[in-house]
């Protein structure tokens, strides 16, 4: 790889006597790639090369002030990065992730999911991917997810007879979902680099992340069907769920169905060993799906039948509505007729009259009729609940309790963080603060919060945040030097001279990012190469939000592609000695193909990523 890069440098650049500042910029870009591949620290290499080449750029204009201007550039770029409000959410999300990781919920969640999916082919691998997706949503830290699942799920799959490649691929691919699924640090960095709203990026990445996890699950099920030896069914011992005494009594004497058995036990003669409080508690737990459905449909009813707000006569529309109603002519916007008269006749009395009319109109507003889609949705949910309660045995009730005790706390944090961001109730920094507090409370509630855990979480949070901030400082200095030398202009002129269509440019950009994912990490690609691509988006009329979603989906390869493939090294560090690095690499290859297919689907159907942002931020 380094030989190819060095060879391209000497082939593209002209002779030293003919080199311009723009060529120095291209040389700087090539040198940073070689230096990173040699193992130099990315942030300080960016700062060092950026400072040196910025001095070259200033020296070519005025040698006397080159040093002072270079030092001023470094200070101003560092201050601009530290003054970026978007980056406040990075340490808070990282702190939340480390606290959630140490709450020991993931083991319970994985056990509940693999029992719930026991009848599905490849159930352990499916449970691994789903657990990784949920853990990524609550954490967003790739190394933590892969390491925890490597300690928890990987040995369980090997013990059950799963193939090493399928098991390793499930852990590594599932663990990297945190790159795309919010709250993703990558999306924060891309938003800060491209000037795109992180809130909209989070909303746009939600469904592509679910789609990619679903494609992984489909691949595992297909592999389990085609090659049963690679993913054997769980044994009866592994699938056994131990019932409490009251459940065994009711199952044996009344009914195996939860609702029927508990209702019969409450109404009829029951065993004295089964307290009424136990029966009512388990009945309430069994009815939770129906209660959640009722709350959801009630909320949808209130939204669907909300009365329309109509302005009463005599009240002037304001904002965009007023602009739309004002008459226009060739000379521009005109004042509405009678505006001077209204201004002259305005008085507190007329103001109070208009207020009274407005109040009467709001009181007289009636709810709209219930739309057809609400009734269809209600029928679908009723049918689903009927199927669920028809097969809801006491065994499934115990599995539901496991999921309730592990998934429900995580779901509250996920809804509290992502829900407030997507709906617009909180900024990413505010939601991250809520998530960090939620992780703190969660660790305390599960009795895992002590001085050692808190110290480790704070230390790792500070370490990760410092890495991200120094990367941004280095990339900011590097980008400024690249622009001063005119390297961006050369790249822009070269791309425009190719006379490409937007589709061809998108394909070229994604291919370059995919290839860069082999030798470089995603952080280096974001901070070094995104500032080169982003100025070209306006020329090809490409939405930066949509481009960012494609990049996030594409950069999953940076964790799954050798020789870097950090996910493979995370897993190798906690895997048994007989599992080789080559086996892990081979297990990741099919998931890279799935990622390419997911990029194709997102490009062909942009609504997968753009529908939710357009729905939430339509105003």
Fill in the keyword field for this structure.
619 residues, mainly alpha, two-stranded antiparallel ribbon, 2 strands, 74% helix
Structural commentary:
A hairpin with a 2-residue loop joins strand 1 and strand 2 (332-333). This protein starts with a helix and ends with a helix. The chain has 31 helices and two strands. It has a domain at 87-236 and 425-619. Helix content is 74%, strand content 1%.
The average pLDDT score comes to 79
Which structural category fits the helices and strands? mainly alpha
Strand order of the largest sheet: 1-2
The end-to-end span amounts to 48 Å
- From the spread of the alpha carbons, the general shape counts as elongated
Q: Over all CA atoms, what is the radius of gyration? A: 30 Å
Count of helical stretches: 31
Largest sheet: 2 strands, antiparallel
User: What percent of residues are in strands?
Assistant: under 5%
* Helix content class: over 70%
Number of strands: 2
Uncertain runs are: 316-351, 357-364
Task: Give a nutshell description of this structure.
With 619 residues, this protein is mostly helical.
Question: Secondary-structure map with pairings?
Answer:
Elements: H1 2-12, H2 21-37, H3 42-61, H4 66-82, H5 89-101, H6 105-116, H7 123-138, H8 142-159, H9 164-175, H10 185-194, H11 198-226, H12 236-239, H13 245-253, H14 258-267, H15 276-286, H16 288-304, H17 320-325, E1 328-329, E2 332-333, H18 339-345, H19 348-364, H20 372-390, H21 394-423, H22 428-445, H23 451-485, H24 487-497, H25 502-516, H26 522-537, H27 544-554, H28 557-560, H29 566-574, H30 581-604, H31 607-616
Antiparallel strand pairs: 1-2
């Amino acid at each position: 790889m380094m030989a190819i890069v060095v060879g391209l440098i000497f082939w593209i650049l002209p002779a030293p006597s003919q080199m311009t500042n723009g060529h120095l910029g291209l040389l700087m870009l090539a040198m940073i790639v070689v230096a990173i591949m040699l193992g130099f620290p990315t942030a300080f290499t960016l700062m060092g090369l950026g400072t040196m080449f910025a001095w070259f750029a200033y020296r070519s204009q005025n040698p006397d002030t080159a040093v002072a201007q270079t030092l001023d550039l470094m200070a101003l770029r560092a201050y601009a990065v530290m003054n970026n409000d978007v980056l406040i959410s990075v340490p808070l999300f990282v702190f939340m992730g480390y606290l959630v990781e140490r709450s020991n919920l993931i083991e319970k969640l994985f056990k509940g999911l693999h029992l719930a999916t026991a009848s599905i082919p490849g159930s352990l691998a499916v449970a691994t991917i789903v657990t990784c997706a949920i853990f990524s949503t609550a954490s967003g830290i790739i190394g933590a997810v892969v390491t925890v699942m490597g300690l928890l799920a990987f040995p369980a799959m090997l013990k059950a007879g799963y193939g090493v490649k399928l098991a390793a691929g499930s852990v590594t691919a599932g663990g990297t979902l945190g790159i795309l699924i919010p709250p993703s640090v990558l999306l924060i960095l891309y938003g800060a680099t491209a000037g795109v709203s992180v809130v909209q990026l989070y909303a746009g990445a939600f469904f592509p992340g679910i789609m990619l996890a679903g494609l992984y699950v489909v691949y595992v099920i297909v592999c389990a069907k085609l090659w049963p030896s690679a993913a054997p069914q769980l044994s009866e011992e592994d699938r056994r769920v131990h019932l409490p005494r009251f459940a065994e009594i009711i199952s044996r004497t009344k009914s195996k169905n939860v609702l029927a058995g508990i209702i019969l036990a409450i109404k009829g003669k029951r065993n004295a060993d089964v307290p009424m409080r136990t029966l009512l508690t388990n009945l309430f737990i069994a009815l939770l799906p129906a209660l959640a459905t009722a709350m959801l449909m009630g909320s949808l009813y209130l939204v669907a039948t909300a009365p329309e707000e109509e302005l009463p006569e005599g009240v002037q529309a304001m904002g965009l509505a007023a602009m739309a109603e004002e008459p226009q002519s060739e000379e521009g916007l005109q004042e509405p007729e009678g505006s001077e008269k209204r201004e002259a006749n305005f008085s507190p009395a007329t103001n109070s009259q208009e207020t009274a009319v407005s109040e009467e109109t709001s009181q007289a507003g009636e709810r709209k009729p219930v739309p057809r889609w609400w009734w269809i949705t209600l029928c679908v949910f009723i049918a689903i609940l009927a199927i669920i309660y028809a097969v809801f045995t006491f065994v499934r009730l115990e599995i539901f309790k496991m999921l309730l005790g592990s998934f429900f706390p995580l779901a509250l944090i996920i809804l509290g963080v992502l829900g407030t961001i997507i709906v617009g109730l909180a900024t990413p920094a505010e939601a991250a603060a809520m998530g960090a507090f939620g992780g703190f409370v969660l660790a305390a509630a599960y009795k895992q919060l002590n001085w050692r855990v808190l110290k480790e979480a704070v230390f790792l949070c500070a370490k990760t945040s410092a890495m991200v901030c120094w990367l941004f400082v280095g990339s900011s200095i590097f980008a400024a030097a690249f622009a001063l030398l005119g390297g961006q202009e050369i790249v822009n002129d070269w791309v425009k001279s190719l006379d490409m269509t937007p589709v061809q440019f998108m394909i070229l950009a994604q291919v370059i990012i995919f290839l860069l994912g082999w030798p470089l990490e995603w952080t280096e690609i974001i901070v070094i190469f995104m500032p080169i691509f982003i100025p070209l988006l306006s020329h090809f009329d490409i939405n930066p939000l949509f481009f960012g979603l494609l990049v996030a989906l594409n950069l999953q390869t940076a964790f799954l592609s050798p020789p870097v493939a950090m996910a493979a090294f995370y897993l190798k560090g906690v895997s048994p000695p007989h599992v080789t690095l080559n086996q892990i690499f081979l297990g990741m290859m099919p998931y890279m193909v799935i990622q390419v297919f997911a990029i194709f689907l997102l490009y062909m159907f942009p609504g997968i990523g753009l529908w939710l942002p357009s729905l939430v931020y339509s105003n």
